[in-house]
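Quick sanity check, Amidase:
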Amino acid sequence: MTATSLDFTGLAAQAAQLAAGEVTSAELTATALGRAHASQPTLNAFKHLRDDAALAEAAEADERLRAGDRKPLLGVPVAIKDDVDLTGLPTSFGCAGEFPCATTDAPAVALLRAAGAIIIGKTNTPELGQWPFTEGPAFGVTRNPWHPGHTPGGSSGGSAAAVASGAIAAALGSDGAGSVRIPAAWTGLVGIKTQRGRIPTESELFHGLTVLGPLARTVGDAALLLDVVADTGSTFRTGAAREPGRLRIGLSTRIPFTATKTRLDPVVEASVRRLAESLAGLGHEIVEVEPDYGLIGLTFLPRSLTGVRDWTLRVPDRTGLDKRTRSNAGHGRLLAGPALRLARALEPGLHRRIGSVFGRVDVLLTPTTATPPPPIGTFDGLSGWETDQAMIAACPYAWPWNVLGWPGVNVPAGLTADGLPLGAQLLGSSHAEERLVSLAAQLEEVERWPERHPETSW
């Protein structure tokens, strides 16, 4: 099969083609690597590409397929974000310097391998995943496949760009303040912020804020990848194939307290309200609600900044870090004691107060971001405080669910007049992924976002 014929073929479809003998893993993997290399000068989605290793693993997968092995992702090429350990490659998490190569796979990577996936490479992320843009001196600028003059978002921007461009069908990202959902919104993808603890990790990332999650072009593909890395069999694929039933959906556009100037772009608000109308057309009841967020931001900063401090301790040469990173790490050192303990202690109260909205509705629908994707370079030359103000103004909606540890799914919400993707969040209470996946899949049937692709072929 040619590279063109494989453009935008989904994860499940590729697995089915492999099982049926319609294509080989060697062909799929060579095509994915070829498209990744071809897009790299423009999009710069990848930090590392595993050409020789991935092709060798694909050849082995083909032998297993011929012998009748039917693991769920056997022979299918995917990618992972460069904050996850993969044996033989460094985990630099967007930082400059010579990092040692990992000697063991992260738990999620081990599960991907056990499912037969071919990991073609590791994708770019901003320095320690701090920002909703994927730019930095360690790797350059990662661009949006829909419009290379704009960011794909962050911090899983490389994973999002790789999937949206068609190089691969799905990728693993991580989400500590919207880092899966924001780039999914700005590249027209489905991105799942999982329930805390759903996907195994070696430690509690950023003091419970950060979880791993899939990015894909369809709900079914995201569910398939999630089933694999959460080791849940077919739980989420089953959810994607099941009708959610009639739900009461709370529409909320109010921005949580941020202590900075924020405003919802009318274009984004219109796109979210249009999705609400689509959901109403599917038989769901839509009501306007306002979750009681309170001062939740005060519990976010000790966890996030202490997490930055923790990660900087792994960096071989901290003098090469962005001055904003060094400043954040310094604040993290100050907050690592009583403030961090208090932030964690307040979480059950936040669950009760904010979670009370789920006594009135089954699911929340909110914007994923407040603005369309910013142009490349928007955050260049800003001080730490100026960067914080600018990124909160663009992305004030996602981070509360990281404090709560609860799941959310970004769904594509259409395009701006200039052809830039927009997104909306479906948010649930504790362990509500199945319901969210089911609702997102139903919405996909009428919205038909998998039919929308960037015009440029890489």
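Posting the structure with no commentary besides this: Residues 102 and 440 are 36 Å apart (CA to CA).
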